[in-house]
Design goal:
The chain is an alpha/beta fold. It has 2 domains: 174 residues, Aspartate Aminotransferase, domain 1 (Alpha-Beta Complex); 249 residues, Type I PLP-dependent aspartate aminotransferase-like (Major domain) (Aspartate Aminotransferase, domain 2). 40% of the residues lie in helices and 14% in strands. It is built from 15 helices and 14 strands. The strands form 3 sheets. The chain has a 7-stranded mixed β-sheet, with helices on both faces. A 4-stranded mixed β-sheet has the order 1-2-3-13. Strands 11-12-14 form a 3-stranded antiparallel β-sheet, with helices on one face. Helix 8 links the parallel strand 7 and strand 8. The longest helix has 23 residues. The radius of gyration is 21 Å and the shape is globular. The two termini are 19 Å apart. The structure holds 4'-deoxy-4'-aminopyridoxal-5'-phosphate. The site of 4'-deoxy-4'-aminopyridoxal-5'-phosphate has 17 residues, from helix 4.
């Protein structure tokens, strides 16, 4: 057993003054048992907690640390920006560079607005879609998570799913009525819903590859089918690429699957670990945003110099080193092959979903294609696996309903360590 006495003491203090002791629900280990670890620092592939324990990090800040922690070019860029004052609330050259870079890398984005989180990005994109179409209703997929905006806490994934509140108290009935939900990967359901609500749907929003009910890829033809339905009915198609943007390829999931949405929401990687989000898309839609158009959206810290510096360093590195995606995918394939062998060896009812460097080991023998199949997972067994991995120095997302994210800092030796830890853990929990 690791000594986690400092983390335990910090959690006791935290609970006195922070709801549940954490500033974002999934950080609490509520779904897997035990107390959360308090992290002091991280470098490359490793996290270090307050008690000095080392862990291979498979969360990577829920995605953004794709190059590994404290990556020198990112660190240097932030230092340089800091020395010139962390905020002005006025336009900067870095914001122009960032917008040009995003538009050059994400296929469907012609204009982009920076915000401060993924939640802000999706809330803003929905407002723009409503303002642009003059319609009120939106369609979202069960189990997809788009941040904590009111409209999205209906059949939501991630922590909302983990803690059993996919429909949060505090969301007004009117808002809930404007959000229509369908199962992921079910084109028929979308067609029927659109027919039933003809002329009333402003937007259809989805994670093109879901990360927030665990990793769930789109079925063949699904994204193309959604594109057709939306084009036919004047619905704004929004890809929420907060997780997949710059992770699954330089141009995100839309490049990988070759389907262009009307609007895209981004976050995570574009901030290089600092709090950033963005939404962008077709020029005609984005030009309806204030001050170019009447739809209001603003932010004191939007386009913050330090956040832009970190994000630019990260994105430039990814643009200049396209080979990084093959390397990440190679590491993912290697680890997944190792896990597949273990599933056979221990005759486990498990299935693995995987796209690029995002993957989830589901403790169910069902093929996970949507919310209903994800929920057939044995979350108690997952909790045991999580604890067994943690005790062997591998830090997984503390919920079955999350994707794991690899970083480029995970080399063959570290990948071997992950596979070995998993083998021992599965042996332990299936005894
Ligand atoms: N959209 C998706 C797909 C996400 O995964 C997340 C967060 N995990 C969000 C939106 C919300 O982003 P944030 O937590 O930065 O508000």
């Amino acid at each position: 057993m690791k000594n986690i006495s400092r983390s335990t003491a910090l959690f006791e203090r935290a609970k006195q003054f922070i709801p549940g002791g954490v500033n974002s629900p999934v950080r609490a280990f509520k779904a897997v048992g035990g107390n959360p670890l308090f992290i002091k620092k991280a470098k490359g592939a490793y996290l270090y907690d307050e008690d000095g324990n080392e862990y291979v990090d498979l969360i990577n800040s829920w995605g953004p640390m794709i190059l590994g922690h404290a990556y020198p070019a990112v660190e240097e860029a932030v230092r340089e920006a800091l020395s010139c004052s962390p905020s002005f609330g006025a336009p900067t050259a870095r914001e122009v560079e960032m917008a040009e870079l995003i538009c050059s890398m994400i296929p469907s984005v012609e204009k982009v607005r920076m915000v401060n989180s993924g939640t802000e990005a999706t809330m803003s994109a929905i407002r723009v879609a409503r303002g642009f179409t003059g319609r009120d209703k939106i369609i979202k997929m069960e189990g997809c998570y788009h941040g904590h905006g009111d409209s999205f806490l209906i059949s939501a994934g991630s922590g909302a799913l983990t803690f059993g509140y996919p429909d949060s108290p505090g969301v007004t009935k009117g808002t809930a009525l404007d959000t229509l939900t369908v199962p992921f990967n079910d084109l028929n359901a979308v067609e029927l819903l659109v027919e039933k609500n003809a002329g009333q749907i402003a937007a259809l929003i989805l994670e093109p590859v879901v990360g927030n009910m665990g990793c769930v890829p789109p079925a063949e033809g699904y994204l193309e089918g959604l594109r057709k339905i939306c084009s036919k009915s004047g619905i704004v198609l929004i890809f929420d690429e907060v997780m997949t943007g710059f992770r699954l390829s330089q141009g995100g999931a839309q490049q990988l699957y070759n389907v262009k949405p009307d609007l895209t929401t981004l976050g995570k990687i574009i901030g290089g670990g600092l709090p950033v989000g963005a939404y962008g898309g077709k020029r005609e839609i984005m030009d309806s945003v204030s001050p170019a158009g009447p739809i209001y959206q603003a932010g004191t810290l939007s386009g913050n110099p330090m956040a832009m510096a970190a994000g630019l360093a990260m994105l430039k590195h990814l643009k200049d080193n396209p080979g990084i995606y093959d390397a990440l995918n190679g590491t993912a394939n290697f680890i997944i092959q190792g896990l597949q062998k273990q599933i056979s060896k221990y005759r486990l009812s498990c299935s693995i979903n995987h796209v690029g460097s995002m993957f989830t080991l589901f403790f169910t023998d069902k093929k996970v294609i949507d919310f209903a199949s994800a929920k057939t997972s044995d979350t108690v067994l997952f909790g045991k696996y999580f604890q067994a991995m943690l005790s062997r120095g591998v830090y997984l997302a503390p919920s079955q309903y999350e994707a794991l994210f690899l970083s480029a800092a995970i080399d063959k030796t570290i990948a071997d360590r992950i596979i070995q830890a998993s083998n021992e853990s599965l042996e332990e929990i299936t005894k």
